[in-house]
Amino acid sequence: MSLGAIVQNGVGTRIRALREAMDLSLRDLAERSGVSAPMLSQVERGETSPTLQVAARIAAGLELRLSQLLRLDEDGAVSIVRGDERRQGPSAVAGHSYEILTPPLPGQRAELSRHTLAPGAVTGGPGDPPMHEPGARETALVQSGTVVLHCDGQRYELLDGDCVTFDADLNHHFENPGPEKAELLAIVSAGLRRS
Amino acid sequence: MSLGAIVQNGVGTRIRALREAMDLSLRDLAERSGVSAPMLSQVERGETSPTLQVAARIAAGLELRLSQLLRLDEDGAVSIVRGDERRQGPSAVAGHSYEILTPPLPGQRAELSRHTLAPGAVTGGPGDPPMHEPGARETALVQSGTVVLHCDGQRYELLDGDCVTFDADLNHHFENPGPEKAELLAIVSAGLRRS
DNA sequence: TACGAGCGTACGTTATCACATACAGACGGC
DNA sequence: GCCGTCTGTATGTGATAACGTACGCTCGTA
Q1: Hey, which CATH number is domain B3-75, 1.10.3720.10, 1.10.760.10, 1.10.260.40, 1.10.3210.10?
Q2: Which of A88, A137, A151, B105 sits 20 to 30 Å CA-CA off A168?
Q3: Do A78 and B52 touch (CB under 8 A)?
Q4: What is the pTM of this model?
């Protein structure tokens, strides 16, 4: 048995559970799916990895699409972070705090964070990551107060409710020039193309 | 080439489309996925049916889960929501209104929109596109009230402040079950660059 | 023209998938 | 007890999945 078979053994377990839930024997499912019973046994025990062809036939025998069968095995297409279980970002700079709102999943393409800036405060101090990976884009929505975006040497004034999008791989930071607290939402979209 | 290979050739075509959309050569994808370039070529042309092991590795190299990759093939027709078509205005459904906050730029990878749901209202009525392009991910942040997310037949209760991330190419809609108005921010991250 | 670098694909070998057959154990019936 | 039948699994064989290598091809560049 190969290592890979162990890793993605989950489908086998899932197939067996579904088969038994439908009260089918291996030979029953073999007839329904057109896959031999010994093959089904091996797949269920994770001894072999079926081809997409036979996997699709097995799924059909279980009255499922292959993607449905696999989605049961892969962990959730949906993941939730509750309002009270957020990750606090490090407060590298006085007057700046933020929390990351999106779940910490691998392969996440967009990260949502909420930033709070005290009067006069700026994001991205010396210890803070000032930019992101090449090709990344950042979108910011001002939720309260006024904010100044400094991006690549340019200065952009943003008022309450404004939304701005810019290349996140440029050097940038936000500043709160007003006398009141400022809040903004930031969305960092990962760059798709690497070069 | 077997008959079965012809039948489910769709994945191969889809893999090639996705690979080219990401501007990857066969050898690039081979390195990212750990599957040899000749094998990729054969799979793309439908000459062989890969095992679930290598199919999963190929999907990972395309930054997709295998179920996502297969769903693209099974669904056949690809439905795309263009920003221009719904950039403005209230939804077709009573009690649901929204506005798109991000600038209408080409190449925008994340679209931010704010939705308001009256008590009992739902998003995505009969005339509304219920899902997004293949591979897209959606993140929603509940800003006030309570919201129920219906995604792929499952039901998820979201409270004020909750943040949820899910596959936006699944059939989904939001519902406001409570007696008060509900507001949520939605971020749709594009799946892949389109050629 | 010649060259190197990139592309996708044809080739031959090895690993393994998938099958038909055969087996050991559990249950029920005359 | 001795069948007949069901269960899931071990066995051996042919088909093929997956690999490493190498070929023909098209570009820029010298």
Answers
A1: 1.10.260.40
A2: A88
A3: no
A4: 0.57
